[in-house]
Specification:
Strand content: under 5%
Number of strands: 0
Distance between the termini: 32 Å
Amino acid sequence: MSEQLRNCKLTINSIVSIATLYSSIRHTHITEEIKKTISTKQTEIEGAVTIADKQLIGLDNKLEELHLSSDGQDASESTESKAEVLQQLEEERKARSASRKVLDELLSKSKEEAIAKAAAENQSHSTT
C-alpha cells in the first residue's frame, strides 16, 4: 500500500511540476506579446511626436520669415492680409503645440497602462 501511495505522490508531483512549467511558459509568451504591442504603440506615438515637432519647426520658420519680410516691406502692400496670415499661422502653431502635448500625455498613459496590464497579467497567472 505504501508503494502505491509513493507512486501516487510522485505522479501528483509530476503533474504539478508540468502544470507550473506550462503556466510559466504561457506567462512568458503573453508577457512578450504585451511588450511587443506596447512597443509598437509607443513607436507609433513617438513617430507622431516627431512629425508634430517638425511641423512646429516649419511653422516657426514661416512665422519668422513673415515677420522679417513684413519689417522690410512697403506700406503700400496689404498689411491686413499679412496680419491675417500671421494670425492663422499663430493659431496653427498653438493647435500643433496642443497636439504635441496630447501626444506626450498619450505616450505617458500608454506606458502606465502597459505597467498596469503587465502587473494584472502577472497576478492572474500567479493565482492559476
